[in-house]
Specification:
Blueprint lengths: L2 H13 L8 H5 L6 H28 L9 H18 L7 H17 L3 H14 L8 H27 L8 E2 L2 E6 H18 L6 H4 E4 L5 E4 L1 H19 L7 E7 L4 E8 L45 H13 L5 E6 L2 E9 L4
Parallel strand pairs: 3-5
Antiparallel strand pairs: 1-2, 2-4, 5-6, 6-8, 7-8
Helix pairs in contact: 1-3, 3-4, 3-7, 4-5, 4-6, 5-7, 7-11, 8-10, 10-11
Length: about 350
Amino acid sequence: MSHFSKFYNKIFDYSLKKGKHIYFKDMISFHKTSPNNIIPIMTNHIYQEMPIRLANRVTDLNDLPFGLSKNHSINKIREKYLDSFDELTSINNPQTPSQVEEFRSSIETIYNRHSATLTTMSKGLYELQSENKISPLDAPYIQSFLNRFHKNRTEIRIILEQYLSLFKPPLQNHCGIIHLDSNLENILQQAIDNIQNICDTNGIDLYLSDIIKIQQSSSITIPTLEHYLYYILFELLKNSIEAVRFKKNPQITITVENFDESWVFIKIQDNGHGIEEENLEKIWYYSYTTHPMETQDILEQDDFSVKSPLSGFGYGLPISDVYMNFLNSSSNNIKVLSDSNGTSIYLLLRKYKL
């Protein structure tokens, strides 16, 4: 049997194994545990679990129908997963400090290798759509695949990032990358400031301080992954700002309040043109946008890059839903209602007790 055949047989064997998921609530449960005690647990988990996850992503990409797996961007993603699988399965189970350090270095390489997967996948989807290789009848299958792909990728990314952070000096009020006392208003303001910067950079004549009003009776802090929550709010606010961009009297109201002891309620309401009823389901589809871009304009950027136009990427809402589901360890956390008077987006964010 050739080396190539043996390699793919190994991938197939790993893809048949059942993986063990880690949820955000599980990660928070370690907040009082010393990093020195968490590192061996996570090292073993990643060593056992990641090859299974990587093998499944390769298998999913190989099984894409309609010739989609032959697309250059998608093939590029698959090759990176193959490289990472090969690298991880070539390492002996790390036991000694030097072996753990070598493993950490490999994990950091793998983490960085896949940093642009989100935009690369989006570009591949755009290319296939522009070549008319995806019909409306294919959309549900593609949607199901992308939901599964991005859900698993998000979990992998967060676990690896958390693992790598444990080797660095701890930050105040943090458990790895988890901010244990995160202020929601600060994250909102950061998102608004960065969108204002995008407007200024792209010559969009909007002054968000005149448009956006935040209604919050008291300061609310929660344990969360700030950069993921920031992405969610950033993307949803971009949509609202695009909706009111050409209104004579643009208005966006953000309401933040405690829903009860376990949940925070966030509402983003705009007076834009609204979403037509027949498009309300489509907004959850990857790469659905009312302002499509040219594929050559889609740059392969890291997940949380702010070097993006105000609209046209198309991944904001479905990826926000994936991120929100992970943060809440549950599903169906974002609701969208719309009519000719504007759009309201409702978010429920879990408050974990420490």
